[in-house]
């Protein structure tokens, strides 16, 4: 397995990148994405109409990849599909570390010409042992060195989450949505049709990557199922691996064939094998982001009993329903806890059973935190979930300046001394901009937050099941 690390390292950590075929009608998207790349960038373009625009970007242009005098580690190809074999041949001659084909119209087009061309470049690359990524993909994102596939992506500060995606859109969206939720990428790759390198190759690479502690995957199909699941089983013992399987319905399975020409097995078989390997199954981008956020920021637990602290009566009911439906117990507390609540808790319009309804105890920060401390000390509780209705708390901040920020600070201090996992449910209602700011502040303090009770409960259920499975190994 470790051979794959040396094989792919030049592509994932290049010191030089060449872009072949970037042009004005694409807004020079590839060259602009490399504006902050911490290495050498070259352009290859023969269309004289494009040369002035490339020069304006400060990038040296060559008429052929072979004319570049320096070693090239990674090549981005955005040429018509008919030209792709010639460029692949040049990459072989240049002995590049890896080549990514943004170019599409190959086997996924289900045309004789597209299939023929993909077979041709596949044969060329395999015979030369060339690392060919794609075609029909956006390739590698390594923020630490500024290797990006869109200018919307961050750079200069990597994280510890790797992402492998057969879809370019999902690869991009995960990095952008993940960043808002405190998830930063170590390395990610979009690999499209997987003509040469398949999901298993990238899983092996990230499984050995010291910068990657959690791996997320979006897969439509794999070439060698036995090899993939053997690899998944081995790596999932060491790192959490989350699998989002595209084509989970009959209709979706048909769609994968036209998207990346993938052959997908029956959904129930995939579900069973993912579970058997000890990986975590997710069904969409939201679940991927939510579950990784819980893994990153919530303390590990195998416990199933939740203490629920709501800010209003209505929320105290629906948060209970959400977590109970997800398989959690919402137990009564110990008598010791109830005696302590009785010493300070205002019960006019509120309740301190479980769930708590703390509405009549606002805006007293000390009472909120005391409630959390009691739940933390109660032997009947494994996990604490705090409801933070944005509209309600923002309205209090109109009258008590800085109340919401002070509450976040107090929650963060509580989390540091708590021995139990804490989740926040941040329901925005119509205060979306305020919710975005609050979410950023929470994640900056290491507090996972979710936009609905159901999403929080679902994420917690997945990570608890994961920790239970690892405890049995």
Q: In which range does the helix fraction lie?
A: 40-55%
The termini sit apart by 22 Å
Shape by Cα distribution: elongated
Q: What is the averaged pLDDT score? A: 93
Q: Which regions contain 5 or more consecutive residues with pLDDT less than 50?
A: none
CATH topology of the largest domain: Rossmann fold
> Major beta sheet, specifics?
6 strands, parallel
Number of helices: 18
Radius of gyration: 25 Å
CATH architecture designation of the largest domain:
3-Layer(aba) Sandwich
Structural class: alpha/beta
Largest beta sheet: what is the strand line-up? 3-2-1-4-5-6
How much β-strand is present in the residues?
A: 15-25%
| CATH homologous superfamily identity of the largest domain | Succinyl-CoA synthetase domains
Provide keyphrases for this structure:
473 residues, alpha/beta, Rossmann fold, six-stranded parallel β-sheet, six-stranded mixed β-sheet, elongated
Describe this structure in words.
The protein has two domains: 292 residues, Succinyl-CoA synthetase domains (Rossmann fold, 3-Layer(aba) Sandwich); 173 residues, Succinyl-CoA synthetase domains (Rossmann fold, 3-Layer(aba) Sandwich), CATH 3.40.50. 45% of the residues lie in helices and 15% in strands. The longest helix has 20 residues.
Give a quick summary of the entry.
The chain has helices spanning 3-12, 29-33, 48-56, 84-94, 112-128, 168-180, 199-208, 225-236, 250-260, 267-276, 285-297, 313-325, 335-342, 365-377, 390-399, 403-417, 432-444, 453-472, and strands at residues 16-20, 40-44, 60-62, 74-77, 98-101, 132-133, 139-141, 161-165, 185-190, 214-219, 241-245, 280-282, 306-310, 351-352, 356-357, 383-387, 422-425, 449-450. The protein is α/β, with parallel strands linked by helices. Strands 3-2-1-4-5-6 form a 6-stranded parallel β-sheet, with helices on both faces. The chain has a 6-stranded mixed β-sheet with strand order 7-9-8-10-11-12, sandwiched between helices.
